[in-house]
Structures are given as C-alpha cells and as structure tokens.
C-alpha cells in the first residue's frame, strides 16, 4: 500500500514539476506579470529595431532571426511559458508587419508556407533547449543559494549559543570559530597554530593533564569530554565543559575535529558552595559533639567512683557517648562523600601487611560488638599498597552492615583468599541476604534497603558507596554474593604490591 | 607536677579539656589563640602542648614550626587535636608528636598524654 502511495506521490510531484516548467498556474502573481510583459516588450523592441534598420539601410533582413532573439531572451528570462507565448506573438507580429501582404492578419494561411513551419519548429526547439540550460543553471544557482543560506543559518545559531564552537581542519588548525570563541582567542581566524596548542595556552595551568588526555584521545580519533578552566580577556578563568568529536568525510577519511565548550561556571560554583557548606557544617557540628562527649564521659567517670549512683544512669551516659560516635561517623561519611565528589578523597598508600590491617580492625571491633560472634579466619600475610585507615574503614563498614542485617547470636566470618596477583578479603554473615536485583545498587550513593522489609536499618546509606570509592582508588574490586535467606558475602580485592 | 598548655579557641571544648586534665593531676594553662600564647611565652614552662589545629589567627602547622624554632621549647611534646582528620598527616609532618581526632575519648586523651609525659 505504501509503495502505491509513494509511486502516486512521485507521479504527482513530477506532474506538478512539468506544469510549473510550462508556467501553468492560475494565480496572476507579480513575477508572472513581469515575465509575460518582458516577452511582449522583447517582441515590440525587435519589431521596432527591424523597421528602423530596414528604413536606415534600405535592405530587408530575414524577420525570423530578429524574432528568434526575442524568443531566446523571453525564454531565458521567463522560462517555457513566456517562451511559447513569445513564439505565438512572433507569428502574429511577423504576419502583421513583415510577411506580404503587409498589415493583414492571415496567420493560418501562412502555415502552409514552409519557411513559416521551419520558423515554428526552430522556435520550439530553441525554447526547449534554452529551458533545459536555464533550468540546470537555475538549479545550480539555487543549490548555491541554499548552501549559503544554510551556512548563514548555522553561523547564526553557532554565534548565538552561549558556548564555544570550533572546527579544525586535518592539520588541527581552526577553520571555523564562533563569536564566543573569538572573545577568548581574538585572532583565531588569522593564526595557523594548532588548536590544541592554543587551548593549552589559554587554559588553567592545573589543567595541563586534562589537555594531555585530550591530545591522546584526538590522536586515536576518539571523542572526548572534559572540564577545563579557560582564561577570558579579563584575565580570570571560566569553567567549560569541552566536548570534541572527530569528523569524517563520506569516504570515511579524517576531516578534522568539531569542538563545543559549554559554560559551566554556575554549576562549578554551586558544587564548590555545596562542598564548602558540607565541610563547614561538618566542622561546626563536630565542635559541640566534642564537648558533649567529653562532658558525658567526665560525668560518667565521676559517677563510676560513687557507689550510690544506679548503674542504669551510668549506662544512660554511655548511650550519650555511643550516639555521639554514631553521629560522628555520619558526619565523616558526609565529608568523605563531598571529597569524593570533588575528586579529593585523601588516600595515603603505604606498603602494609593486609593480614595485620584486618586483624587490627577486627580486634578493635570485637570489643564493641556483643550481639554477634566475629570469627577471623587465617589471612595470607601478603604486602599490599594501601591506606591502612581507609581499608580498615571499608572493613568496618562491611562488619557494621553484617551486624545490622543479620539476626543476633549469629556469626560473622572474616577471611581472605590469595589469588594470582591480588588478595580477596571477605565478610560473610548469616542474614537475609541481598536480592539479586539489588546487588549492584547497594554500592550506590544514599542506597537504602527495601523499606517494606522489616530490618533494623539505620544510617544514611553512604558506607558502601564510600567503600566502593576507596577500593576503586586502590585499583581493586568490590562486590557482594548472596543466597536469599542464607546470608551474604561482601568482599573486596586489592592488588599485591610489586 | 607536670604542666600542660592547652590552646583551643572553642571555650566549651577548652573548659572540658581543662577539667579532664586537671582531674588527672596536671597543671593547665589555657589560651584561646596563638597571639595570647606567644605574648606570655616567657612565663611558661610546659612539659606538653595540646594544640587545636585550626586557630582563628594561625594554622597548626605554622604554629608548630614557630614553637619548634625556639630553643626554649626543646623537648616539649606537642599533641594536635582537630575535628578534621585529614590534617593528621600535615601536623605530624610539621613536627607534632601525636594526633587526636575530635570528638575524642577521654581514655584515649589521657592515655596518650600519660605516654608522652612518661
């Protein structure tokens, strides 16, 4: 059905095309009036010219040549319609003015005249030929105009977008730049420096590494995206999200790069304000916590010396201390997240024995966990390049989660397994397990287990996210395997030190 | 009787720390900023300095360097305490003998001080 429809439409279009070529249109538009007026004027002027010439020279030139001139001119200017119109007009004019007997209108008797027939054939062939030439030229001109128009349109768009836009040629020299880019590099169209060098010169000294990465990507003909600071004419820096993409011709040959830089000052400012806010708030929150904890412990000490104070009160005081510690962990987690977001999570790697790190951590946790039994399996004593505190933080997160999500009086097993070039540390609990669908998302930021599931869940869902980032920084892997109802095993791997 | 100098800008923390240390039997002089401390330098004979990293007029690492410059303070232990545990490394590099992160445990504080004064 669609094919029939397409065929019908192409036929219709062709018909319309032909009709237009013959200028068959019912509207009397201004250009049409001009075209036909031109044909009439041409005929009138060649008739006049022939009469003047006859009188001046006394000779009688062939009238058809004169009319051919007017036919050619009308066809050229007006197309087929005025051309045909011109042929008919010439017949009338020739008959009226030049063919004997003069000043009579006996056109059709002259159709028997062979020279008149030749004239009509000549005229029609001529206008057909001229129309083809004219249409071809017209199409060329039209496509040139359309090309120019689309260029203007593109330039208009490019110049009004609040972004840097450029294109380089195969030598990486910029051959197109929009207005905004010219505000950052004033003489960009005159220079023949490589664009990447220009970019390196105007970007912030701290972004050198990013430029190097960009260079490498360009060499490999890869698209790339990065955030750069670029110096403006006031001498300050603006943040840009730079995207580059190689261009290829339709023959798949390399044809330079197109680049776009979106202004992201505001986003960067907001990010900075956010992490500043988190950092200041965290610091300010810790100050009163310090006082609360210290006073609580101080009072607890005094009470402990006094036999008259009930033990319940002592426990209440230690609850205050415990909760302060919980809150401190939250604040530290928030701080860590804001650092991760800024890419500034401090990791101080040192060569260390992984079995010692694990043993230290487990023994320090044992004292605070009464509800579960911690079993430490022997761990291969190997050296890794790791931040002791951070790895310990990951392990604490794992064990805390195991305590939180498994029933009391069950065991939590901590162990290690040596692989070819890495060591795997795991924490296995006997809880409900993590459903397969959630095994990936538990490591996401602010992840919480299903609220419908009855659990003693608490916390803001940052521990595993931070753990993942820490392990990532150590070039290790983190993950979870689980059987529903039987418990889950959280593990991480660390590459062995060379 | 051992003597301890406590430099801490937060009055509440200063107060509680002072009470703790005095109950442990130390003599404590407390300052709220670096300027006051350096003004009274001549009158002090401490065995240990407990220093908050972030003071209103000076950062901990600069402070430690300034203290270390003086002959007078040779052999005096410096312990930094701060809420920001990322400054631990910076203060140890500057020459501090130990670092305690806030909020601190009284047991940890007193134990570390006892160890350094032993």
Features:
heterodimer, A: 498 residues, 5-stranded mixed sheet, B: 118 residues, alpha/beta, 5 helices, 41% helix, globular
The quaternary organization reads as heterodimer
Strand content of chain A: 15-25%
Our count of helices of chain A gives: 13
Beta-strand portion of chain B reads: 15-25%
- In angstroms, what is the radius of gyration of chain A? 44 Å
Largest sheet of chain B: 5 strands, parallel
Q: In percent, how helical is the residue content of chain A? A: 40-55%
Give me the side-by-side strand order of the main sheet of chain A.
2-1-5-4-3
Q: Strand order, biggest sheet of chain B?
A: 2-1-3-4-5
Instruction: Please give the largest β-sheet of chain A.
Output: 5 strands, antiparallel
Mean pLDDT across the residues of chain B is 88
Q: What string gives the helices and strands of chain B in order?
A: EHEHEHEHEH
Q: Note the total helix count of chain B.
A: 5
What letter string, H or E per element, gives the SSE order of chain A?
Answer: HHHHHEEHHHEEEHHEHEEHEEHEE
Q: Let me know the number of strands of chain B.
A: 5
Low-confidence stretches of chain B: none
Rounded to an integer in angstroms, the radius of gyration calculated over CA atoms of chain B is: 13 Å
Q: What is the first-to-last residue Cα distance of chain A?
A: 70 Å
Account of the 3D structure:
The complex is a heterodimer of chains A (498) and B (118). Chain A has helices at residues 2-21, 30-57, 63-78, 80-98, 114-160, 179-184, 195-202, 208-219, 265-305, 311-341, 354-366, 388-405, 463-473; strands at 163-168, 174-177, 224-231, 237-248, 254-263, 350-353, 373-376, 383-386, 411-418, 422-428, 478-483, 487-495. By secondary structure, chain A is α+β, with helices and mostly antiparallel strands. In chain A, strands 2-1-5-4-3 form a five-stranded antiparallel sheet, with helices on both faces. In chain A, strands 7-9-10-12-11 form a five-stranded mixed sheet. The mean pLDDT of chain A is 84. With 118 residues, chain B is an alpha/beta fold. Helices cover 41% and strands 21% of the residues of chain B. Chain B has five helices and five strands, in the order E-H-E-H-E-H-E-H-E-H. Chain B has a five-stranded parallel sheet with strand order 2-1-3-4-5, with helices on both faces. In chain B, strand 1, helix 1 and strand 2 form a beta-alpha-beta unit. In chain B, helix 3 (60-69) packs parallel to helix 4 (88-94). The radius of gyration of chain B is 13 Å and the shape is globular. The mean pLDDT of chain B is 88.
């Amino acid at each position: 059905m669609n094919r029939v429809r397409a065929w019908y439409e192409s036929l219709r279009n062709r018909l319309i095309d032909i009709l237009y070529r013959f200028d068959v249109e019912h509207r009397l538009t201004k250009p049409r009036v001009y075209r036909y007026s031109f044909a009439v004027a041409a005929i009138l002027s060649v008739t006049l010219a022939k009469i003047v010439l006859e009188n001046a020279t006394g000779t009688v030139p062939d009238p058809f040549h004169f009319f051919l001139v007017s036919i050619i001119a009308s066809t050229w200017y007006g197309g087929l319609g005025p051309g045909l119109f011109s042929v008919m007009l010439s017949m009338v004019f020739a008959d009226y003015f030049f063919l004997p007997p003069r000043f009579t209108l006996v056109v059709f008797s002259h159709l028997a005249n062979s020279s008149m027939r030749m004239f009509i054939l000549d005229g029609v062939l001529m206008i057909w030929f001229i129309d083809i030439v004219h249409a071809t030229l017209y199409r060329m001109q039209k496509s040139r105009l359309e090309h120019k128009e689309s260029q203007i349109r593109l330039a208009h768009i490019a110049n009004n977008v609040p972004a840097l836009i450029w294109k380089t040629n195969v030598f990486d020299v910029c051959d197109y730049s929009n207005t905004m880019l010219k505000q950052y590099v004033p003489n960009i169209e005159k220079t023949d420096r490589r664009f990447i060098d220009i970019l390196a010169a105007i970007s912030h000294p701290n972004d050198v590494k990013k430029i190097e990465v960009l260079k490498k990507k360009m060499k490999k003909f890869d698209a790339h995206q990065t955030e750069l600071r670029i110096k403006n004419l006031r001498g300050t820096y603006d943040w840009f999200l730079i995207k580059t993409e190689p261009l290829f011709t339709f023959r798949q040959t390399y044809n330079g790069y197109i680049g776009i830089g979106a202004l992201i000052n505001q986003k960067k400012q907001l990010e900075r304000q956010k992490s500043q806010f988190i950092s200041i708030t965290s610091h300010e929150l810790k100050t009163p916590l310090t006082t609360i904890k210290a006073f609580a412990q101080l009072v607890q000490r005094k009470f402990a010396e006094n036999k008259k104070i009930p033990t319940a009160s002592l426990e209440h005081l230690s609850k205050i201390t415990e909760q302060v510690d919980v809150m401190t962990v939250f604040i530290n987690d928030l701080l860590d997240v804001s650092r991760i977001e800024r890419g500034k999570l401090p990791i101080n790697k040192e060569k260390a024995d992984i079995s010692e790190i694990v043993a230290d951590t487990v023994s320090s946790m044992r004292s605070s966990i009464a509800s579960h039994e911690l079993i430490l399996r022997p761990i291969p004593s190997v050296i890794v390049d790791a931040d002791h505190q951070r790895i310990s933080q990951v392990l604490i997160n794992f064990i805390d989660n195991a305590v939180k999500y498994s029933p009391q009086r069950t065991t939590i097993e901590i162990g290690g397994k040596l692989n070819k070039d890495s060591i795997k540390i795991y924490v296995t609990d006997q809880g409900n397990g993590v459903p397969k669908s959630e095994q990936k998302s538990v490591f996401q930021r602010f992840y919480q287990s299903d609220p419908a599931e009855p659990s003693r869940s608490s916390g803001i869902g940052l521990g595993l996210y931070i753990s993942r980032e820490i392990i990532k920084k150590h070039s290790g892997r983190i993950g979870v395997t689980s059987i529903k109802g039987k418990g889950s095993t959280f593990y991480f791997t660390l590459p062995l030190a060379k | 009787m051992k003597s301890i100098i406590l430099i801490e800008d937060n009055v509440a923390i200063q107060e509680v720390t002072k009470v703790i240390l005095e109950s442990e039997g130390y003599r404590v002089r407390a300052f709220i900023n670096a300027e006051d401390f350096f003004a009274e330098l001549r009158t002090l004979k401490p065995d240990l300095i407990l220093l908050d990293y972030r003071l209103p007029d000076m950062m901990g690492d600069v402070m430690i360097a300034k203290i270390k410059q003086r002959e007078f303070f040779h052999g005096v232990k410096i312990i930094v305490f701060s809420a920001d545990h990322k400054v631990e490394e910076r203060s140890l590099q500057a020459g501090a003998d130990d670092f305690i992160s806030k909020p601190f445990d009284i047991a940890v504080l007193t134990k570390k001080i006892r160890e350094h004064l032993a």
